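User: Can you predict the 3D structure for this chain?
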Amino acid sequence: MNSSLPSRRSELIGRDEEIAAVAESLESHRLVTLLGVGGVGKSSLSLAVGKTLESSMGVHLVDLVTVDQSVDVAAAVADRVGLGATPDVAPVDGLVAYFSDGDHLLLLDNCEHVLDEAAEFVDEMLERCGELRILATSRTRLDVEGERVHPVAPLGFEATDTGPAPAVRLLVDRAASAGTVLDPADPQVVDLVRHLDGVPLAIELAAA
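Assistant: Here is the predicted structure, written as C-alpha cells:
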C-alpha cells in the first residue's frame, strides 16, 4: 500500500500498549485525536500506529506545524500527499477522489497550529470519504462529531515488575546513544526523570 511514513531511527520506548490501543480505536472510530502537552510524544505515537497499519492500508503523514492560518489546509494536505495542482479542481475535491479509492489513514500532526481550519477540513473529509480514517495529534481537541480522544501522558517513572520505569529506560537508552553509560538503578537517574516529569522530549534533550 502507498505510504509516506519516514523510518524511525531509534526505539519508541514505553508506548507498546498505547500503540495497540490506538490502532484498535481506529477500527471503530474514524477520527482519533492524540491529545497532550508539547513534547509528550504524540507525534512519535502517531507514527508508530501508522507503521503498524501501513501493510493493510495507505498511510499518509501530514505535519501542519509549518502551515499558518492564511493557507488552505486542504491545499497543504494535497501537496504533502503528492497530489499536483489541477486546474478547475479544488484541493479538497482532489483529496476526496484520492481517498475514496481504497482504505486510507491520514495522520494529521500538530493540528493545534491551525485548529479551526484543521477541524473544518477533517469534518468535510469524513463526511465525503466514507472509508477514510484520520489520526490527529493536537494540544486541543478538534471538537468534530465522532471524535475519539486518546490522552497521551508522560512516561511513568516508577519501576515495574518487568524492569526499570519507561522514563528511566528512555534516558538510559538515549544517553548510551550519546556515549554515556547510566545505571538505571542509580537514584540520581530516577530523580532526573522525575524532575523532567517523564516528558520524552525533555528526557531526550537531557540525555543529549
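The helical segments are 16-28, 42-53, 73-80, 91-99, 115-128, 166-177, 187-195, 200-207. Residues 59 and 141 are 22 Å apart (CA to CA).
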